[in-house]
Amino acid sequence: MTKIFDIQSIPEELLPQVGGKARGLYQLIHFGFQVPKAFIITDIDDDETFETAVAKYKELGMDEVSVRSSATLEDGMDFSAAGQFSTFLNVQGADALKEAAKACVESLHNKTAEHYSTTFLRSAECKMTVVVQEMVKAKCAGVIFSRAPMRPGFVLVEAVPGLGENLVSGKMSAQQYRVRGNKIENMPAHSILNRKEAITLGSEGKRAEELFGMPMDLEWAIDKKGAIQWLQARPITISESVTMNELDCDLDATDFVYTTGNIGEVMPGAVTPLNLSTNMYALDWGVKQTYIEIGCTGKDVPPYYYLASYYNHMFFNMTSIYRVNHTTYGTTKETSDESICGMVLEGLPGNDMKNLPFWKRLRNTWRFGKIVFGGNVAKEGMDKVVKELHFDLTQDMHGIYKQIIDNFQYLNWAQYWHYRASYYSGGQSAMLGKLEKDFDNKDAFKALVAGCLTQNEEFESANVLRMMRQLAENMVKEKPEVQQYGIEQLGTYFEQEASEAIRQEYAEFMKRHGFRGLREPEIMSKPWRDNLESFYTSLRSVLVTVGKTTEREEKPWTTYADELLSHYSSGMKRKYIMGLINKARKGVCYREYTKSRTIYVLDQFKQAYRKLAELMTEAGLLPEVDCIYFLLQDEVGQLLQGDQSLVKKAMARRRIFPQQQKLKFPYAQQGVPQPMVEPELDGNNTTFQGTPVSRGIATGIARVVHDEKDASLLKEGEIMVTTCTDIGWSPYYSIIAALVTEIGSALSHGVVVAREYALPTVVNVSNAMTLIQTGDEITIDGNTGRVSIIKKAEKQ
Fold it and tell me: Alpha-carbon distance 188 to 160, whole Å?
């Protein structure tokens, strides 16, 4: 039976059934907000219903009205269904009212609404109520977000002249007022609202949040008499709470020094929410556990204290790292900087904590020494993790998720052992770095140290390229025309044409290194084993160089060591320095080995999550497999328990992820990291300074590489310019003449391999990918760190 009620007189027992729009107006009135005259039509079942609505319209003396849908699944806390159902404005007269009301009911079954329901609501039952509300003769109107996106503590008021529908429908851009108490941040020029109106709207928005008990999205209008009329109230839904920095660390970071050093190479660009809550969490846990064991900190340190996330980008909190300088002996801010960043962070403060008493620092120094000189312990610990970790992917989705949670300790410990191995490596290199004061030419010294770390047969990462090159050489020897094969042809070759010996060699490569690949620390990134197109692209870059000679100068590492030692006359000093060099070489091996094993452990979780996502998609819990990567690990469990609202959150996060990926940050800064503005190109500036990490000089055409698609265009003899490199880029080292990166250090994983192939390399060239364009002819000097543009590319 049709029920028609004045908006303020809806029986409380019917409120759950009348839809979010009607319920919101009812609550606004009862909270004391001024709402235009309105009534609702519910339980609509035949044409007589609309005749009854016309009678109510006439009874209330209405003229122009809005006719809006108020579906039961609309304007809720989890889903807004905004724009899925019909709304009509300036409706006047009985016939127009009936047509508009009918159209609202029919919109319940339009294609847009049904697709929305299938995607987000799993086709849950939805009923329609219609709201008829008197139109406001508005001088201006708009919306309020009681919590301004990305501005904690502020209310966002948006205003346009005339009807607010111009804003909601996207027909007109709004003026924005960020209000906090009696303050307005950046009052717009030629303001639509005066100061009093803006502050009042902000205050009322905050009051609505307090009364409703949740963040609110409110529509308002100011009539010709200057009175504020409230037209709609709905909770800010899950997708609207998703912003560029939704997952930022909840820390007072005012005095913290953050850097992209080291972590920006390990995990360049933005990370997915799942990766943030798994691999990045584990990396932070590993650092924290190390500092607890040393005695630098207690167990109450919050997550993401050492490895922080802002805008889904990762940063080392150097202020927390500097605690070791006040809790042990033998370390300084400078040595900590060198250990993490490969350079001293000039002009930024250390940690102002008080030094621990003598005996505590002495005890902690002994503990610290066990870690710094415990490279083999780290290796054995990592081997134990790899041996014990196991997944059974034949279980159902609940069983697989339980295994992920139960096994998560192994990812934590893998990152812990890798960090300990890195401490061994960084500690030895930092001690070598102390010799820099003995050299007038600091860049030449760094190049010598880099040379001392080359040609080590135990480098795990360098073995990737050696095995790939050996495979390529054998393929060409067996079938020379394979050098001209494209990606698809290589796939056919391994399936149908390759000999048994080649297939076995290929299988051996995949067994040892198939879990590696581009952006390998990202849980969403597929390894070579599961992304054969990426592997064949890399292999092809090696194939084309088989049989061609290289003109690169490749000196034995002992030549660099001898040159370094020649600066000292004391036999004891020379012996001591040679010992440091050997330990540094061993340290890099420990670090590279544990890095490889950490990626192997992460790969086990990648496989588990991929299988889980496939099962959840089959069960209708996810619209597609990749959505899982835009949920936090705990949220995956909540979705498995039935919280379908998280699907929309995942899809909203996925939409903004490409924008997060494009953000770049200063190498180091104090306070919450903020994205950089792209620098203006200075046509007169053609020489840039970086850090030399692999000696040699090369001139060639630059190719700026953002992703694998760009890399596949690399031609022999070109110079690769990129943000940073990981092991997945190493196959391209066979064809390029030199390497330039925006960030990096002498111990970067990609740099380690570059040195193995005597590839001139300069890192830390700020904004290199903006300042250098594809097609520029450039010279790179791996001895001095200078990169020069010889001839600019012609504009296309």
Answer: 12
pLDDT at 76: 45
Tell me which DSSP letter residue 707 carries: S
Contact between residue 397 and residue 640 where contact means Cβ atoms under 8 Å apart: yes
Q: Helices (DSSP H) in 107-246: which residue ranges?
A: 111-120, 165-168, 195-212
CA distances from 134 to 80, 88, 91 (A): 23, 12, 9
208: closest CA among 289, 144, 279, 278? 144
Q: Give the CA distances from residue 83 to residues 80, 137, 141, 220, in Å, rounded to whole numbers and listed in that order.
A: 9, 23, 19, 18
| Count of C-beta atoms within a 10 Å radius of residue 331 | 20
| Angle between helix 557-565 and 442-452 (nearest 10) | 140
Q: Is 751 exposed, middle or buried (0-12, 13-18, 19+ CB in 10 A)?
A: buried
Structure tokens at 708: 């694998």
Instruction: Write the pLDDT tens digit of every residue in 370-410.
Output: 988 888 999 999 999 999 999 999 999 999 999 999 999 99
Separation CA 92–CA 132 (nearest Å): 11
Cβ atoms of 423 and 672 closer than 8 Å: no
d(CA 315, CA 709): 27
Which strand (E) or helix (H) includes residue 657? Answer: helix 645-662
Residue 532: other Cβ atoms inside 10 A = 17
Q: How far apart are CA 175 and CA 167, in angstroms?
A: 10
Whole-angstrom Cα distance, residue 5 to residue 41? 7
| Strand pairing category for 38-42 and 138-145 | unpaired
Burial (0-12, 13-18, 19+ Cβ within 10 Å), 560: buried
| Alpha-carbon span 587 to 573, nearest angstrom | 21
Look up residue 783 and give its two tokens: 């001895």
Does residue 91 sit in helix, strand or coil? strand
Establish how many alpha carbons lie within 13 A of residue 636's alpha carbon, considering only the half-sphere containing its beta carbon.
29
Residue 714, number of CB atoms within 10 A of its CB: 17
Q: How many residues does the chain have?
A: 796
Q: Cβ neighbours of residue 435 under 8 Å, at least 6 residues apart?
A: 445, 564, 577
CB count within 10 Å of CB 92 equals 12
- Summarised one tens digit per residue, pLDDT across range 704-713 is 998 888 888 8
Pairing of strands 777-781, 786-791: antiparallel
Q: Which range, of 13-22, 323-332, 444-453, 614-623, averages the lowest pLDDT? A: 444-453
Q: Do 745 and 342 meet the contact criterion of CB atoms below 8 Å apart?
A: yes
Tally of CA atoms within 13 A in the half-sphere of 612 that contains its CB: 27
Q: What is the DSSP letter of 438?
A: G
Cβ atoms 327, 368 nearer than 8 A: no
Tell me how far CA of residue 443 lies from CA of 4, 265, 689, 691, in angstroms: 82, 21, 10, 7
CA distance 636 to 409: 18
Query: How many CB atoms are located within 10 Å of the residue 649 CB?
Result: 25
Q: Please provide the DSSP assignment of 206-238 as one string.
A: HHHHHHHTS-EEEEEEEETTS-EEEEEEEEPPT
Cα distances (Å, whole numbers) of residue 488 to 534, 709, 728:
11, 15, 20
Q: Which of 587, 603, 198 is nearest to 389 (CA)?
A: 603
pLDDT score at 67: 92
The pairing of beta strand 777-781 with beta strand 697-704? antiparallel
Tokens of 754: 């570059």
CA atoms of 174 and 176, how far apart (whole Å)? 6
Mind spelling out the 3-state secondary structure of 310-333?
A: ECCEEEEEHHHHCCHHHHCCCCCH
pLDDT tens per residue across span 478-513: 999 999 998 899 999 999 999 999 999 999 999 999
Report whether 723 contacts 269 (CB < 8 A). yes
Complete DSSP assignment for 623-640 = SSGGGGGGS-HHHHHHHH
